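Ticket #4471: structure output looks truncated?

Reporter: J.K.
Steps to reproduce: submitted the chain below (177 residues) through the standard prediction queue, then opened the result file.
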Amino acid sequence: MEFLELVKTRYSVRRYKPDPVPEEDVMSCLEAARLAPSASNSQPWEFIVIKTPELRKHIAESTYSRLISFNKFALQAPLIVAVIMKKGHILSQIGASLQGTPYQLIDIGIAAEHFCLQAAERGLGTCMLGWFNEKKVRKLLEIPKSKKIALLITVGYPADSPKPKQRKEMNAMVQKL
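Returned output as attached by the reporter:
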């Protein structure tokens, strides 16, 4: 698939089929994320693949509450991947501090999008979730306090089709000097 076609194909899936995700597809997505660039090659990420139904259910339940129910679709996803942020190399930490730029978050975003684009290329759907009860997920996954859970990514076969993307016009966001 041509790259721009892949980018147009990838969307945030919020309805999943119950079909399991083949291990080779999961590994392909993880390899794409592993190869992502990062500041000073710090690679400040780890991935936890959650397949076990009971644990996956508890993780999915951490993404919504009685007041906020927009992530209930996570219960349908046959797979959830937790993206864990570690401290980067000292050089990237110093650079981030001096520049006031959170390089680790940028790096995590790049790796997560590599994962999601590879998933789309393999016919899978994904949705990155930033809204979840980190304390609950941290306890369930036994994540030490020295690391942060940056994102959860739901993964599976889409049970719907993408809607046309609504984006700003190019001239509204690009300035040529």
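Triage note (M.O.): checked the attachment and the full token line is present. The mean pLDDT is 93.
Status: closed, working as intended.
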